Amino acid sequence: MGRDYITVVTGLPRSGTSLMMSMLDKGGIAPLKDDVRTADVDNPKGYYEFERVKKLPGDQGWLPEARGRAVKVLGELMKHLPSGFEYRVVFMMRDLDEIVSSQKKMMIRRGEDPDVIPDDELIRLYRTYLKNLKGLVNSSENMRVAYINYNELLSDPDQSFEEIRDLFDGDIDADSMRDAIDLSLYRNRGG
Amino acid sequence: MPEQRKHTTVSIPTPLYRNIKKRIEGTGFTSVSDYVTYVLREVLASLEEGTSEEVFSKEEEDRVKDRLRALGYLD
Lengths: 191, 75
Description:
The complex is a heterodimer of chains A (191) and B (75). Chain A is an alpha/beta fold and 191 residues long. Chain A has a domain at 6-94 and 142-179. Chain A is 37% helix and 12% strand. Chain A contains seven helices and four strands; from the N terminus they run E-H-H-E-E-H-H-E-H-H-H. Chain B is mostly helical. Chain B has helices at residues 14-23, 32-51, 58-70. The relative contact order of chain B is 0.06. Chains A and B meet through helix 3 and helix 4 of A and helix 3 of B.
């Protein structure tokens, strides 16, 4: 029996969403992506993005195509996912200091000012932002969610794999997912 | 009409029951059931608190969105 739900990987930028997309791919859930945004120094293995997602809520025509596959949806766009579908959500979390540090490097490479918002202020904003986002996901009847911590995923993957396996009722090859983990790409560690 | 029951039974592991019984000795809790009810109410209240939206002003929301745009994740 095929998967009749849409697998959604969400979280803040630089929280490990691309890694999770590649892990799910290895585990047997094909990604919905278009390779418009190509691999670069920030994401050497690619972004796993599907540009039409950014057109939500205006463009929802791609959603039937996403059934049975995994699609990356930025946290900001989660509220626009229509109610006519079932979603299994992998919600990526990561130490906020690491996220901010990684984002700043990315902004510099993009020619943006990384210090528009002071780090402390940004972390405060992100905390509230994530809390509200979790509230949205937790209260949505058509969403099942697993919260996966990027730092724990890399340091002790077995617990995270168990949670991912539960989310998909065992219908995923967790052992193969391990192949996607490349510790050499784990930069911007805290501490 | 039969009166609707105000309580029902849930099962917990016996070692946990013993542990709780020991823990509530000398406290105001008169039974393990009272203590478990209290703890569960606390847990549920905190979960509900977690699902209620915190105040996020329009300006704060815009600042986050601007950040996401600068990172290339939002049009």
